[in-house]
Structures are given as C-alpha cells and as structure tokens.
C-alpha cells in the first residue's frame, strides 16, 4: 500500500489568508492538532495548535504569523511504512503527501494509517493470537511457518519486537484458528516458550455453548 492510496479526502488545508482562529476551529472540528499550510498548491509546512495558542492575537493571518519551519511530508510513491515511521518519530496527527516537485496531494491521518495496519495484521479476521518468546539468534520464520503448517494453521500475520527488559524477541502470530492447543503443544515440543495465548471463540460457538448449558440446567 502506497502513501497516495491513504490520502484523506475530507480534511481541509489552511491558506495564507486564514487566521489563527480559523485554523484552531478547523483543528477542533476534525479532532487534529496540525493542519498543512498550502499556497498555490505548494506545501509550505504544518501549522500546529500549540503554536497558535501562544499567539497574542488569534486573528493574525497565517501569512504574517511567526510560524516554525516544520515541514514533514512523504512522497506519493512511498510505502506506508515510511509514513508510519514519520508519525511515530515526529508525533504527528497528520502527514502531508507531496509530489517530487513539492505539490500538495493530500494528507494521511492517524485513522487512515490505523485502518490499513489493522487490515495488514488480519485484525478483522477470526482467529487466535500466539506470542512466542525466543532468543534473537534462534528466530527462524521458516521453522515457525513449518510448525504452523504441520498443524494445518495459516499465519495471517507475523510481527516481531525486541523486548529490552529480557533481551529476547517476542513473535506475535495471528492465526486463522480459534482452537490452538495442538499448535501450542507442537511449539512446546520444539522448545518454544509460549508467552501469551489469546483465543476468542466465534460468536455462534459461544451462543451454542450457552444454549447447551441452559438446556442442561433446565433438564436437571
């Protein structure tokens, strides 16, 4: 997924003749703390809420205001991971998307980015979560995938993070299976440490169990 495919079509831009008060109103309306300043379709920088709140006169025009030279942006053809890194590093609420010539195309919001991350991580798909804890030198994605396949389990997503407290690698597996006892047993047989396991039952299965319990209770 490229940055240009995540552009929001509803968030407005600020113009040179807008006032600080108008900028604050728009930020409040769209629940943002930053908005891009665009002049003649050229992206000039991000205007920040905290900056305007420090002004003595909120009716000051943006073109004559003492704005900081804060100009984060991502190229239209960049992968969305680059956008994610900028959001994290710079604590952004929006990220403008531009062409190589600096022309403004639109912006990415946190909501847009969160939605695509959820899709890539299979959040909407039914299934369980398994967190393995391994030594970094022992991590083998091919072996993990082979173990899952041997249990007829599909890995919908795999994410890793280094835990600075333990110096170990945590491997988060999103699977297509709710019942994972067999998979867990196989991982343990291969000396994997299972740190967490989360398995949400499908709604119809839960309803059926509750119904069966009720019938058993009535027949007592």
From TrEMBL:
- Does the UniProt entry include the keyword Ribosomal protein? no
Every CBS domain range:
67-125
**Top-rank taxon, per record:** Bacteria
- Pfam family of the protein (one): CBS
The answer to whether the entry has keyword Protein biosynthesis is no
Could you list this entry's UniProt keywords, alphabetically sorted. CBS domain
Protein name as it appears in the record? CBS domain-containing protein
């Amino acid at each position: 997924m490229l940055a240009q495919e995540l552009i929001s079509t509803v968030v407005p831009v600020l113009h040179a003749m807008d006032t600080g008060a108008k900028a604050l109103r728009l930020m409040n309306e769209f629940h943002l703390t930053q908005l891009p300043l665009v002049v003649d379709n050229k992206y000039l920088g991000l205007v920040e809420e905290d900056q305007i709140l420090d002004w003595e006169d909120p009716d000051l025009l943006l073109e004559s205001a003492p704005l900081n030279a804060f100009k984060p942006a991502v190229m239209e053809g960049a992968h969305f991971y680059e956008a994610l890194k900028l959001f994290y590093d710079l604590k952004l609420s929006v990220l403008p998307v531009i062409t190589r010539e600096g022309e403004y195309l639109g912006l990415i919001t946190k909501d847009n980015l969160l939605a695509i991350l959820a899709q890539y991580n299979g959040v909407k798909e039914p299934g369980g979560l398994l967190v393995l804890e391994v030594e970094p030198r022992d991590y083998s994605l091919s072996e993990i995938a082979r173990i899952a396949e041997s249990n007829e389990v599909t890995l919908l997503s795999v994410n890793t993070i280094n835990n600075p407290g333990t110096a170990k690698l945590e491997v988060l597996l999103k699977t297509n299976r709710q019942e994972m006892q067999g998979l867990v047993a196989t991982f343990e047989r291969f000396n994997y440490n299972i740190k967490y396991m989360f398995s949400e039952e499908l709604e119809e299965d839960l309803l059926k169990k509750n119904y069966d319990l009720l019938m058993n209770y009535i027949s007592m």
